[in-house]
Amino acid sequence: MTQPIAFDNSYARLGPGFYTRTPPTPVAQPGLIAVNDGLAQRLGIDPDWLRSPEGLAMISGNKPPEGAEPIAQAYAGHQFGGLSLQLGDGRAVLLGEVVAPDGARFDIQLKGSGPTPFSRRGDGRAWLGPVLREYAVSEFMHAVGVPTTRALAAATTGEVVWRESPLPGAVLTRVASSHIRVGTFEFFAIRGDVDRLRALADHVIARHYPDATSPMELLAGVVARQAETIAQWMALGFIHGVMNTDNMAVSGETIDYGPCAFMDAYHPDTVFSSIDRHGRYAWSQQPQVAVWNLAQLASCLLPLMPDPEGAVPEATRIVHGFPAIYQAAWLKRFGAKLGLPEAGAGDQPLIERLLTMMAQQEADFTRTFRGLVTGEATAEFADPAPFMEWQRDWQARGPDLALAARANPARIPRNHRIQQAIDAGVQGDFAPFQRLVEAVTHPFEDRADWADLAASPEQGEEVRVTYCGT
Ligand code: AMP
Ligand code: MG
Fold first, then answer.
1. Which whole number is the average pLDDT over 114-135?
2. Could you write out the DSSP letters of every residue in 18-41?
3. How far is the CA of 176 from the centre of ligand 1 (A)?
4. pLDDT mean over 319-341
């Protein structure tokens, strides 16, 4: 039989110390939930093979295909500001890497694939809820152009996962340009393992920043990509929810969709995660947290520099360069949302005025911006007078509505819709999940048959708290 996936496992070749060789734990009764045809084709994998018994055996973790070298990656991380010396893949294994027809390299990882040496007290499993949430949200993010890990497939396990109650188990097949995190660098830096730290930096440079000629340029690259990505989150009302350093990918991709959510009503202090009691990872805090995380990366990279102490000012300057890059990206993104192609600092007050008004009146974030395109934004304001005054000033700027239409999705994966899809999935009905994925991966089409998915939650429908995948 022809090889279904041509694995080429460069991370595994880094050698011992970077991971443990840990196969996925087989599951009782794999069942297919979804295969992402478009992504499979992009990777050069036959989607029909993924649906075959051998494909299902791979995505459930029952039998890795030939060429896979399952490993659990080691990493550390600052969680809510406190350092954990060892985290690592506790509920995931990297099956290996595939080089797509266009030459791009991708990790194929199973999440929820059973215990590993990094599981600590966890069971290594995922229940259906977080798997469906990550699938829908990451595929939406891709559809609107945000750098992100993606979902290749999802499967049920036929096993029960115990959280507060018994829940159906599931496995997500996740694809990323890599799963290397700020926390991966921390793992070696805090152990003083400079050789592996250097090997990791060289690997990341070759893989993600081929133009970088030094660890300092690598740092600058990560800072720039994170600033761009987080500006995109902000422009979608997205709250990652658990921006620990182990959940920040050095590629710049959004990773580890746990208690993440999109705001319905806009408020800058919005928090969803049940464990984020002090709002550390609130919507408005995300750029500052990114700087904090990148400062951790900077200190990890110092030992690789010719004169580590002398390099501190330059590394600091690079990390402190985040706000300028972020601010320019923010202006570009929010400018586009207003249909202003060349938005500059002079346009910031116009954007801020709208946001302030939205916060005061609890206007729906997505519907207000989309409403600028469709002419329905006024309906989002209980008291429309200030908005109409703003609108006159905005229209005087001659906005390009086609640009705004491309920057303002009609639909996001709203929290309550995700919840409804999960509730149905728990009952064995995946139709609402399939429909949600279809709708949010075509986010710019105004379609009457998806109007319910574009609507704000009714009273009583709103989901205000989200939980970590565990
Ligand atoms: P995260 O939720 O992504 O911030 O995960 C933090 C750490 O907890 C990572 O090392 C995970 O691998 C680990 N972890 C989370 N859930 C589980 C689980 N159910 N079993 C084992 N390890 C887990
Ligand atoms: Mg994580």
1. 98
2. SEEE-PPPP-SS-EEEEE-HHHHH
3. 18
4. 98
Residue 117 has pLDDT above 70, yes or no: yes
pTM score of the predicted model: 0.98
Tokens standing for residue 217: 């340029």
Assess contact for 244 and 260: CB atoms under 8 A: no
Using the mean position of ligand 1's atoms as its centre, give its distance from the Cα of residue 111 in Å.
Answer: 10
SS3 content of the chain, % helix, strand, coil (to 5): 45, 15, 40
Q: Which tokens sit at 94?
A: 């990297």
**What are the domain boundaries of the chain?**
12-176, 181-408
Residues with Cβ–ion distance below 5 A, ligand 2: 247, 256
* Residue among 237, 208, 206, 236 nearest 222 (CA): 208
Residue nearest ligand 1's atom 13 by CA: 90
Contact 77, 84 (CB under 8 A): yes
Share the mean pLDDT of the chain: 97
Q: pLDDT-derived band of residue 3, with 50, 70 and 90 as boundaries? A: confident
Whether 307 is a known active-site residue: answer no
Residues with CB under 6 A from ligand 1: 87-91, 118-119, 122-125, 242, 244, 246-247, 256, 258, 468-470
d(CA 389, CA 331): 22
- Report residue 322 as tokens: 């985040």
Q: Name which residue sits closest to atom 16 of ligand 1, judged by CA.
A: 470
Closest residue (by CA) to atom 14 of ligand 1?
90
Of the pLDDT bands very low, low, confident and very high (cuts 50, 70, 90), residue 470 is: low
Between CA 456 and CA 382 the distance in angstroms is: 14
Mean pLDDT of 328-343: 97
DSSP state of 148: B
301, pLDDT greater than 60: yes
pLDDT greater than 60 at residue 450: yes
Q: If 0-12 CB within 10 Å is exposed, 13-18 middle and 19+ buried, where does residue 165 land?
A: exposed
Q: How far is the CA of 185 from the centre of ligand 2 (A)?
A: 14
Instruction: Give the confidence band of 205 by pLDDT, cuts at 50, 70, 90.
Output: very high
Residue 367 in marked binding region: no
Phi and psi at residue 11, to the nearest 5°: -70, -40
Residue ranges with strand state E in 40-135: 71-73, 77-79, 82-84, 92-99, 105-111, 126-127
The one catalytic residue among 46, 193, 211, 246: 246
Going by alpha carbons, the residue nearest to atom 7 of ligand 1 is 87
Measured on CA atoms in the order 156, 157, 158, 160, is the torsion positive or negative?
Answer: negative
